[in-house]
Every structure is written in structure tokens, then in C-alpha cells.
Write a structure and sequence with these properties.
19 strands; 49% strand; signal; Immunoglobulin-like; S-adenosyl-L-methionine-dependent methyltransferases; 3 domains
Amino acid sequence: MIVRSLLVFLSLAGGLRAADFIRQIQTVSGVSVIYDMALANDQGSVTSKPLTADSAVFQLYATTTGTNNATTLVKLDEKAVGTFLPQVTVQALSEDPYYPPRTRADKPYGMRITIAGMSALTTVPDSLKKVQVGRSYKLYDSKTFTPTGSSGTYADTFLFRANGTFTDNAILQRLPVTKPTKAVGEESFTVYLHPDAGTPQAELAKATVQIWPVAEGKIENIIEGKTYNAAPRDGNIIVKDVYPKSITYAQIYKGKQLTGTIGTPLPNAVVSHNAAVPQQVPLVFSDLDSLVTDDGEYTIEVLTITPFNGGAPEIIDHVTFDLDRIIEVNASTATME
């Protein structure tokens, strides 16, 4: 069997170099046979070496140039082909419709695996009548939000023996970090040809979801429970790890803090983002005088609206203070005789 046009109109950033190639791997009589086919152009068709096994794995490699002109070999893509291989797709699901898929560290996400063409013929080896699913991760730097190079595979695997669509919408991230709500990285679910087939781990389909940390911040220069003789003038907050698509704002209302209260937005304290990675948002609480016309107890809340929780605001921090602008002077009058 010949596989023609395995990768058509292949485009590699920076152009192809002599080290760019497609690797063909197959197992014949228990022995791995490997062919490397050099690529001379960045588009066109490629003809495989003859396939003498039920299946084979094709991997696309390219060289990239980094700092100090150091070159690194990177695997860009992988496909498994064969006579009896099923057609498999994996789709990552999230409350956030953004692509590539992403979610927040404290929110569940989903995976939908669709399998078709799984053979039931008695003449087909049992190893080709099942697929295996593995779960892996990569960690990101918490400041640059780029991969750190630290990655791994979780111990649990899943076995599928039937055609159909299988969906799990309650997956919780398990990135190996100290504080789960501040996890930064990605998790992937990959469907492989079952190892019993004798082929080196052959990837049939894969989906990845990015995981971003929960926003946090602390209101400064306004003290909880303190009585002020004038509206506080230097309150502020720096909100870290604001979700990439979000609206972050501060509001004030009279009375004790009560979740769900709709207050008055503070002037110049509303920031909207639609980015690829988390953001840092500074908010300054200015012009409170015009918003606190009466003395009494007031609450300031800092909230964020994201694609989660049905778009309902979530509280990042809050502070309650008393305002008493009436100055009492106790004095006595006496006469001297």
C-alpha cells in the first residue's frame, strides 16, 4: 500500500531546511522499521515508502533556530494510517467559546471523543478493535504564560472498544502545582492505537485545552470597618491574572457587603480585555465624594465578568467602611467673678 499526498501544501514558518523531514515508522515481525524522507519544498505531495504492516506512523519534523543560532528539532504533526484503523476526532469543550480552547483553573472542562470505522470483523486483529486514551500536561510560566519545558503524562488511561461519541463535561484540571487555583498550563487528551498492535505509540487524534489562573487582588488604602471623616481618596487595587476575555470593575453601594448587590460603578474603574493570555489590571478609586452623599456605612467591591457562571459578576475583593462627616465639639462656658 502506498500513501500519497500525506501532507499537501505543507507550510513551515521560516522556510524548509535540509533537516526537515517526514519519518515513517512501522513494525514488521516485531521490529521497528524507520524511514526518514527529506523535504525539499514547503508545499507539494509526498509519497511514502511501501507499507508492509497493517499500520504505520508518519511524523513531521522541522528544525527551528533559537537564541545563539542554536537549532532544535521539533515534531509538528503526527498521523497514523492503516487498513483497519478507525477514524477518531477529539474536541475540547469549555464554557469559553474561544479558540484555541481554554478554561479557568477552578472550572471544569470537557472532551468529546468520536470513533467511527472500528472494525468488528473476526479476521481483524483484536489490537485494531480498540484504542487507548492518555492524558498529559505542560506547565506555563506564571508571568510570561509561555511553556516552561516541564511536562508529563498522568497515570490513568482509558480504553474504548466501540464506535460512537463519548463526552465528559466534568473534567477538572490536575496540573502539578502548589496552588490549584493559580495553575497555568495546558492539558491534552490523545487517542492512540492500542499498544497491542505492536506499532510505536501511534497518535490517532488529540485535543488540548489551555488553563489560566483565577484572578486575585487586594484593595489597598481603605481599612475594613474604619470610620472616615471624609470620603477615602487614595483607595486602589491591582488585579492580577485577570481572565483574557473579561470586564473588571469597581462599584460602591450603601450598607454592608452583600453578594449580588448592584451598586454604582466607580469612575475610571472599569477595564475590558479581549486578549490571548491573562492580564494585570490597576484600578484607582477616584471621585468618591460625588457617590457618597450621605453619611453611613458603604461597601466597595471589585468584580470581574468572564465567560463563566453565565456571565454573572464574581467578587475579587471588597471592603466596608463608615463615613461620618459630622464633627462634634464639646465645650463649656465659665465666668470668673
